[in-house]
Amino acid sequence: MRLCGHVLFALFVTLAAGAQQKADGAGSGTAPARAYVAAHQQEILKEFQDFLALPNLASDLPNIQKNADALLKMTERRGLKTRLLTMENVPPVVLAEAPSDPSRRTVIFYAHYDGQPVQRDQWKQDPWQPTLVKGSDERIYARSASDDKAAVVGLLAAYDALKASRAEPSVNIKFFFEGEEEAGSPHLGQILKRYADQLNADLWVICDGPIYQNGQPLLVFGSRGVVTAQITTFGPNRPLHSGHYGNWAPNPIVELAHLISRLRTTEGEILIPHFSDSVRPLTAGEKKALENLPNLDPQLKQEFQLGRTEGTRPVAEEIMKPSFNLDRIEGGGYGPNPANAVPSTATAYIDIRMVPNQTPEIVRGQMEKYLIDMGYFLVHQPPTPEERRSHARVVQITWSSGYPPQRTDIDAPVSRAFVQAVRAAAGTSLVVMPTLGGSTPAFMFEQQFKKPVIGLPIANFDNNQHAANENIRIDYLFNGIASYTAVFTNLGNFWH
After folding, report:
1. Which of 1, 195, 217, 424 is the most exposed place for a label (fewest CB within 10 A)?
2. CATH 3.30.70.360 given to domain 225-279+321-399
């Protein structure tokens, strides 16, 4: 059903009341925020709905500019000092700043307003027409509902709640809203350098991603790095009849399969020599955080219909290690009726997740040396006819630029203060994780400003981000507003 009318009003009153009851047992300092949400839920959801209705693919510059213009109005309406951080033909960053006090530390809250592409035929409804669906919970379905416009609207609503309560923030507040995160943030580093004098802060907070898989609120202190590669093997210069040439002309799919089996095992063990030599050992605080994590493996195996998992460690411990994932294999064409032929090429698409102190440069060097040591002639562009004739095994490898991992010390004073501040909203149910399994641009902020970075996600874990039917649970949005307000109100009081 659509978002409209008195039915929504009754629904949101009920949800807000439920959230208020949870907050009463969670800790102090969030009652004003919950009360604000209960009194203004229609306004919050209307603003959210209007924002979600704007198509927001980063490469669609006219529409992405409409999103930035909408954000300008949303932030200026709240009395925030707002400007666009621009580069030519690049989605602008919207930077909004609350009135500051030089005696307080400054925190920049990051979220992004661009979203993933959509394939409309896979959606149950129009992805640009926000739709409320009732069930065991209430969710809004739309592209970017959870990734990441919920965080944008949630942060602004939290600021409204702070002002309505007439409370003084404990830190100076800035909002940094990026417009090309889903495109890999290709210009973010340049923007940070160009506008560094306007981005002075003591802490960056990444408001992106889902909470823990069992529904508990989550704090994360890092994210893994990522680098991707395409590995192509070669057979004849054109497909050949398998009856005439099979088992004579080298089959590139077979070659690729054997190559992959020498890069990783079926248990996830990475076979590249010295691959983990640069991995930084876990700190005592990180080990303790892992010991306190709820074990979700039985639940996840049931949900994903898995008869086994790779390796021997729980999923929360596995993401503390590097990983080598095979995304896709192509070769021999496509369609329901493959030809009986020896194909010309085969390609594997790989993503490698890295942990401190690995870098894309280290990983690229290790993998290329290993391929050469295995007897492959390595090229970075399509091989010439002479190269194909002159070498028994030719491999083309194409790398992305990638970016390194980032991890803030979980025992640092700012980290301990942040945990205390969020517990005002989340209580003892708060889950603290040393790192996300995924990758974020957090390293760019740390690299440019040499300041800590902490992640505060609010979206439900089953939100279908990057897929059809993306959604956000309404109660999670409301709880997120309370968490953000708790940070505004309490962080500076705990940060010594």
Report:
1. 1
2. yes
* Interval 131-169: pLDDT, tens: 999 888 999 999 999 999 999 999 999 999 999 999 999
CATH 3.30.70.360 residue ranges in the chain? 225-279+321-399
CATH 3.40.630.10 domain range(s) in the chain: 5-223+407-494
CA–CA dist 130, 50 (Å, integer): 8
Chain Cα centroid distance, residue 206: 10
Tell me the CATH number for domain 5-223+407-494.
3.40.630.10
Q: Measure the CA–CA gap between 486 and 496, rounded to whole angstroms.
A: 17
Say whether 233 sits in a helix, a strand or coil.
strand
Structure tokens at 264: 């990783």
Please tell me whether residue 86 adopts helix, strand or coil conformation.
coil
* pTM recorded for the entire structure: 0.86
Residue pLDDT, tens place only, 1-36:
333 333 333 343 334 434 433 433 344 568 889 999
Q: Are 225 and 405 in contact (CB under 8 A)?
A: yes
Local structure of residue 240 (DSSP, 8 states): E
Q: What is the DSSP letter of 428?
A: G
Q: Which residues of 442-457 are buried (b: 16+ CB within 10 A; e: fewer)?
A: bbbbbebbebbbbbbb
Query: End-to-end CA distance of the chain, in Å?
Result: 49
